[in-house]
TrEMBL record:
InterPro entries: PSP1-like (IPR047767), PSP1_C (IPR007557). One of its GO terms (cellular component) is cytoplasm. Residues 361-442 are annotated as: Disordered. Residues 373-416 have a biased composition (Low complexity). This is PSP1 C-terminal domain-containing protein. Residues 115-200 form the PSP1 C-terminal domain. Residues 417-435 have a biased composition (Pro residues).
Length: 442
């Protein structure tokens, strides 16, 4: 996801993956905005010495202690402690905002077991990272093939290899418990790494894969959403949405997380509507409630003998309910007229165009095509006759053809003036030509 603040004007697209460091971090997934970045501190010793480091383009994050004397900024590549080795990640948060993130996740800032930042990544570390990251696609294909051979009911969604190549994490999806003890042995012997199996859900898989939602934006789970709350169809009913599984489901196959975004707003607005108003009694029968419009504060009812919908105001519904509680049945519903501010689209009138369409253009094209075909045939015939004329005669089969002078040389010879008659030698002094012998045939 590119950002506009790090363009360098070099012809490359915006984004820190093309133009170096990026202060906004918009090209990395699951970022948190550091709104305390420029806040001055009186006591430097009290500054939080823990930094948030992201791995694999932001799909995984962890906290590391900075015991070095170096000050790291957002977007820098650092080498940290890994599982029996080292790993390379990117700094995403530093300073006081990290302390708030630690409090949110319930992590102790002064935990002695917290891993440390070793140094800024050098060329050797980045080279190892690129080599091992290039192994991940082939490892994913091979891992899926092995799991299929063992007939395990699981799906390997992603393989993440550590920067030094000593450890590999296999993320998988399974509905039930899976006995993968034999699978781990095969993976360790096949890839020569320490194997870690981690189970994830369908929403986490969609977050790792990424994509575009039906709203036209990137998936929330792959950009900023980290806490997945349960979503049910009740949220759709409160918002008057049709219970259509294909429209309410996201790319993960579960109900969309965005159904919970506006649910609180709808619940607050629905508190102003009367309760126990699903049915009301009038002289024409019992009217049934079909929907509530929180934007216009209207309640729509349907009578049993027709399918026509009657919009009623909240005050009118409360009045009818109070009358029904007293045993009084009103004559009419007194529905209001709903006017729309949108201009009505005028349908175009039917116009009879029979006889107005001319086919002269098509006829002209056919005539031109036929004329072109006839010209081509004539050219082909003329070329065949020229070839027949250029064929040598019977007695001149072995005689080489006389070289023809180019057209420019012939023109030059014609333009050159002939010598005057005085300079020509007299014909009397010329030697006589020897008689030529007759040519013999064949």
């Amino acid at each position: 996801m590119g950002c506009s603040s790090c363009g360098t004007g070099t012809g490359k697209p915006g984004g820190c993956k093309s133009n170096g460091g990026c202060s906004s971090g918009g090209c990395n997934r699951m970022n948190a905005y550091d709104w305390l970045q420029n806040l001055p501190f009186a006591d430097i010793e009290s500054v939080c010495k823990v930094a948030e480091v992201s791995f694999n383009r932001g799909s995984r994050k962890d906290f590391f202690r900075n015991n070095t004397l170096q000050q790291f900024e957002k977007g820098e590549q650092v080498t940290v402690e890994g599982v029996s080795g080292i790993d390379v990640g990117e700094i995403t948060l530093t300073g006081e905002i990290v302390r708030l993130q630690l409090k949110k996740r319930g992590i102790n800032e002064f935990d002695p077991e917290m891993k440390k930042i070793l140094r800024r990544s050098n060329e050797r570390d980045l080279e190892l990272l690129d080599i091992n990251k290039a192994r991940e696609p082939e490892a994913l294909i091979r891992a899926r093939a092995i799991a299929r051979q063992l007939k395990l009911e699981m799906k390997i969604s992603e393989v993440e290899i550590q920067a030094d190549g000593r450890k590999a994490t296999f993320f998988y999806i399974a509905d039930d418990r899976v006995d993968f003890r034999e699978l781990i042995k095969i993976y360790a012997g096949e890839f020569k790494v320490k194997v870690e199996m981690r189970q994830i859900g369908a929403r986490q898989e969609a977050a790792k894969v990424g994509g575009i939602g039906s709203c036209g934006r990137e998936l929330c789970c792959s950009t900023w959403l980290s806490d997945f709350k349960s979503v049910n169809t009740t949220a759709a009913r409160y918002q008057n949405l049709s219970i259509n599984q294909t429209k309410l489901s996201g790319q993960c196959g579960r109900l969309k997380c965005c159904l919970n975004y506006e649910l609180d707003t709808y619940l607050d607005a629905l508190q102003g509507f009367p309760e126990r108003a699903d049915t009301i009694k009038v002289a024409r029968g019992i009217a049934t409630l079909i929907k509530k419009d929180i934007f216009k504060n209207l309640m729509w009812y349907v009578l049993p003998e027709s399918n026509k919908q009657y919009p009623l105001t909240i005050e009118r519904v409360r009045r009818i309910l109070s009358l029904n509680s007293q045993g009084v049945i009103p004559e009419e519903l007194e529905a209001v007229e709903v006017t729309s501010s949108k201009p009505k689209e005028v349908e175009p009138e039917f116009v009879d165009v029979v006889g107005q369409i001319s086919l002269r253009s098509l006829e002209k094209n056919d005539r031109r095509r036929k004329q072109n075909q006839q010209k081509q045939k004539q050219v082909q015939r003329g070329g065949g006759q020229q070839q027949q004329q250029q064929q040598p005669a019977k007695g001149q089969g072995n005689k080489p053809p006389r070289p023809q002078q180019p057209q420019q040389q012939q023109q030059k010879q014609q333009q050159q003036p002939r010598p005057p008659q005085q300079n020509r030698p007299p014909q009397q002094n010329r030697p006589p030509r020897p008689p030529q012998e007759p040519k013999k045939d064949g």
